[in-house]
Amino acid sequence: MAKQTNTKKTINPWKWAFWLLLLAILVPVIGFYLYIQTASQETASLSEPVTTEEASDETITAEANLSTISFNRLVSAVIGGEDVPYQLTVDDEVSFAGLIDALGTEVAYTMQGHPSVMEDGNIAIDVTNIELAGLQLPTSTVLAIFQLTLPTDLPLQVLSGEEQIIIRLDQVSEDMDFAIRASDIDLANDEINILLDVPLTYIEEQIGTEAEGNQ
Questions:
Q1: Nearest to 14 by CA among 73, 90, 68, 97
Q2: pTM
Q3: What does the pLDDT read at residue 85?
């Protein structure tokens, strides 16, 4: 198994798509913060100023309520794209389809799983069904083969023994200026909640950039 390094990696094209999608989610958060800042200026003289050092440690947690369609876009941006060896779809389940090398033969497969939220905010996909053309293999074996086909920098972890696939949002967050984590996923009722932990300094930078662009 290849060793992970802590070196900052260049964001891949699929991560740029994810970045743009999250920035769209962040726009209301920045607007809300700007409104609060404007309103608070009227009473600023009644409170002690916050130092820059204190402000740099603060984060704002925003909740994004996504539809299944938006969640499909989010998941596709995180673990989809042209560089992965499968096709990905999200409807009432998360589905993968592609080819794997099983026993020296390329075999078409389809795999479905039910997503749920882990304690650390990552997304666990409990594999509920795997179909291999003409082959009968244990789910754990198919997942172990599937893992070998994945790009090493993909934020996807396969736990073949537990028959789970983990979408590593914490790994994605390492390449962002803010953290993303799942809060609740209920595809059947079209309810998905994602939390964004945004540093106060990042929001201030975005407001400053927006103000400069409007001058």
A1: 73
A2: 0.74
A3: 93
